[in-house]
Amino acid sequence: MAEDTRDSRSPDAIRETAPPRITSGLQASAIVILGASALATARRVQQLYPQARIHGLAGRVDEADESYREFAEHLRTLYRSGTPIIALCAAGIVIRSLASALVEKGMEPPVLALAEDGSAVVPLLGGLAGVNRLARELGDWLTVAPAITTSGELRFGTCLLDPPAGYALADLEQGKRLVSDLLGGARLRVEGEAPWLQQANLPLHAEGERCLRIDVAAASGDDALLIHPRLLLARCTEPSAELAVHLRAVLAEAGLAEAALAALLVEGEGRALPFAEQAAAELKVPLRFIELNTALPPACYEAPGLSLHLADSPQAAVAIGRPRGRLSVVGIGPGCAELLAPAVRRALDEAEDVLGYKTYVTMAGPYRAGQCLHASDNREELQRAAHAFELAAQGRRVVMVSSGDPGVFAMAAAVMEALEASSDAGWQGVELEVLPGISAALATAARAGAPLGHDFCLISLSDNLKPWAVIEKRLQHAAAADLAMAFYNPISKARPWQLGRALDLLRQHREPQTLVVLGRDIGRPAEALRVLTLGELTPELVDMRTLVIIGSSQTRRFPRQGGGEWVYTPRWYPQD
Known about the structure:
Helix content is 29%, strand content 23%. The chain is an alpha/beta fold and 576 residues long.
């Protein structure tokens, strides 16, 4: 875990630690193992792909990043979600597990089988998603030869149907026919720049019967296989709701391929942002921001409100402009990996900067080298939110960490408050998302059974940001309405008396036998759950890390098999 100890507000300092651009399709993969004997190899693979997560079978692997209970169903779930899979087991087990989930070729993620000791790499699925290329990469890392069986790749040393990043295949079926013809003895001529083919063993000939053309043109006029280099930059000066339609019409008029688009460029965020964002999403291209004086390649086509520019290379195209920054406000739940939402884990893995209260930032790891961690005091919410927007406005991927759910007495409200009060156009242009987590109330309730199974409310007993008189009034109303209640921030050294006062108010409306659930550090190693009654509850039994659930008049309990009790509030309520 890399912690940023410099001036974290300095853009130059931040850029020094920015991670390299991720190019491997296995970076966000799942390394799936069945037993502890495969853990050492899994860790070696994770060194190559730091963002990959090790998934271990519950009860057999204690040190995995995530756990699962049923191998075949877990594999199918990963496959359906498009997650690349490295399974450390026999290839046959993977094939049988995924057989019922296989879909049309071209839609599947890479799936590889890897021997537990790392002695064999077998690409199984995802030929058009680069599985063979990734198998070679993994084989080089483990110093083994990958078991590649694809005819074209064995013969020619490359997959013509899987061009590298920055290039797009125009017609898959035409590509299949070309490869078949080459395997049958046809010769190939290449027109245009295709540097990745220089080391391939293709039957090249200046008068080849078949042609591979690298071009931004929409059509070839012959039977050549087109691969479009992503060189086109579309600069928009007048974004509108019809921007995508307008741009497609301009491309068609110019005879240029939509697949050759590298980015949509707009000047500043401003009011045009929603239209530009919508168009970029429809066209499936990045949205990038430029300044009025940004140097662009010469225009190759111009139309009202639009101009098309041709970069020298795909690498040069992606270097122009600034990406839209993203701020993800996430909840990490109770703090254990198995209760962390996959979307939150992805946001954390993709982040360049992670901000939050130091304890929560630590809990949200592990982190890869190069990620900047900005830990701060738990009471600096608005300053932290401002810092996050400043970083994201530079085009960075930023994550704000909260425990539990970010919208429940946590950072989502502070972020919204900071954004509403700001007139900074850069802040307004940040892509903002809130990703939910499991709140302390729900985690504690789940451990106990279902004490929040009927109407309930959540109340913070902290009077730091609201008067105690307001808290008392809400307690009175909730108690009179016979709602189950969950108390956040119940007690602290600075606020030692509020819980006792709250209990006095509740006892005016609730019987002493009303059930109470105390959950401390739920989901963490020191987890403790206790069921008692309102008559037995005293402030001394509670601390700041305890979630207090006060049942309604209908909340009940019964013995659970193996010891302890289940607590639940029925879904029905007695009729008057």
